[in-house]
Every structure is written in structure tokens, then in C-alpha cells.
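Before we proceed, please read the two lines closing this message. Tell me what the C-alpha cell row says about the fold.
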Amino acid sequence: MDVRLDAQDAQARALSLELAHGRVQTPIFMPVGTQASVKSLDAQDLHALRAPIILANTYHLYLRPTHELIAKLGGLHGFSTYKGNFLTDSGGFQAYSLRANTKEHTEGIVFKSHIDGSSHLFTPAKVLDIQYALNSDVCMVLDDLVGLPASYDRLLKAVQKTTAWAQQSLEHHTRHARPNHHIFAIVQGGTHLALRTQSAKELSALNFDGFAIGGLAVGESSQEMYETIAHTAPLLPAHKPRYLMGVGTPQDLLEAIGLGVDMFDCVMPTRNARNGTLFTMQGKISIKSAPYKQSDTPLDPTCTCPTCAHYSKAYLHHLFKARELSYFRLASIHNLHFYLELARNAREAILQGQYARYKAVMLEKLG
């Protein structure tokens, strides 16, 4: 992976990543397309939003429609017709979120399918082979994710297992990956800073293309999360991208960018949109609230997304109350535009050496 540092302002960074399906400039927010589809949107919507990379999920696509079928139909790009880059998660998060359906195995994780109850063993090599079949641009290694709070012994076990799996993954990747497939390791350790140090140092010694900070936003406080990021990010190689997995609010993004994180994903903008919560430069609004029933103004007068350009709060309020399917699309477009612009404007501020000011102004506006 060709990585260029375009600017650094204190700890905040602006990188350019050259991937097989286009350049990704950081900081970047990656919309979540678990099923090779961002909920309620199609590829043309994502192109209109200028999203250069989205996330898809190895576990879910392995089960349905299967990675073999997707490979036959042109990989994720041909299958979905989205022409940007795909980052694929490994299934480690599903081992946490679907833990009632998983059990430990000496070689990896055994999943019981939430679709038909069948059993499947995910190993470090198998999850990479699935991602190669999907033709993912960025492949994540299998990791051991632990919810918080957790005991020191359980967190230590997660670090040890994640490092061992990362080593196996890198060996497999070196032998089997094509040049367009890049691989990221995942740092674990909960909020225990000594374990984060151990995990980051062990993984940084290996030649991965990038590094993720995993195991956060799983039960700890925001302050604990920020302290963990502040401790961990500087331990990772300065010349490679840093990805904070599954985080979070606009405020979380602003704080983490200032701590040296480059890449983000989270279901929050689309999930909140579907539930009626929309992000604006004046703070969050609940479109279901009665005052918006007769409002002829856009969601955000400063927003340039298609939703704000064409539709009023009253119309969106009506669509939400009527449970019209078009609401989900229009609301998701707006929230994703907000997140993507937040990251793009953060990049501009870093390039100008003004990130601290940008962050302070935005945090005040967002409340």
C-alpha cells in the first residue's frame, strides 16, 4: 500500500492511501455496508456522496449469499456495482455481538449460523481466504474481541490470542494474497494501558499494511476510550494508517482525529437516521417531534446534501410518521453526508494547521 503523509498538525494527520479502487484521503469515515449494501442506499447514492471506501462484513457475506457466489459475480465491486474500495471485517466483532452463538476452538472461533443453525469454524487463514474471494481492498485479521468491563486475565488472553492469530494471518497473506489485497492488524487490550502497549508493540513489529485499534465502544466510558486511544495511537507505526473500529459519535471522531486516528466506521449515522435522529450543525434533532410537522425549512440550512437541497423537515416528518421507505434513504443520505463532510473538513483544517480550532468550533456547535 502506498501511503503518503500530506500534513500533520500536532497529532492529527492527513494521509493519502493509494488502493486498487481509488485514492482514500484521511481522515475518512467509512459507511457500513454489512451485506455489501449500506442500508437503504445503492451504489449510485454512495458515489454521489463521494464515499471512497465502505465496509462489508466477512461473516455475514460468507453465510449469505456466500463468498463463492460473490467471487463468481465479480467480487464485491462487480456484485454491488460500487466501484470504490471495500474494507472487510474478519468476524471478530460478530464473535462478540453474537457470542451466544459462538464457542472457542483451538484453531479459531466456531460460529453457529444465525440463519440456519449450521456450525462454521473461522480460522485466521479461512477468514482471509473469504476476503480474497470477496476481492476486498483491505482485509482485517481475525481477532479476539472482549466486552468491557473484563478481568485482566481475560484481556491478557485476548492480546495473546490476537497476536498469535495476527502472525498466522501475515504468514498466510504473504503466500496467498494478490497485490491489491492489503492487510490490517488489530490492537486489543481493553482499557488496560499496559496490555495495549504489549499488543501494539507485538503487532507493530510485524509488517502489516495498517493497524486498527479494536475493542473499544464496548462498555467503557468515553473518557476511558479517549485515554486508551491517546495511549495506543503513538505506539503504532507513524508511516501507516490507523483505524479506530466501530466508533462512533461526531464528537468521538473529532477527539480521535486529534489523537492521531485516520480511519473510522460506525453504524450510528444510518441506524440513527432510520430511528429518526438526524445530525446537523446545530446539534441532533428528532424528526418525529411535533414542531417539525409544519416546518418548511431544510434539516440544516448549511448542508449541501440532496436531502437538504430538496426536502423540508415537514416532509421528512411526514415520511417518518407514515413509515414510507423513501424516508430511510433520504435520512441516511443526510447523516452520511454529515459524517463524510465532518471528516473532509477535518482534513482541510489539518492541511491548514488549524485542526485544534476546527475541533473546538465543531464541539461547541454540536453541543
User: Anything to note?
Assistant: The longest strand covers residues 2-9. Residues 325-351 form the longest helix (27 residues). The chain has a mean pLDDT of 96. The two ends are 38 Å apart (CA to CA).
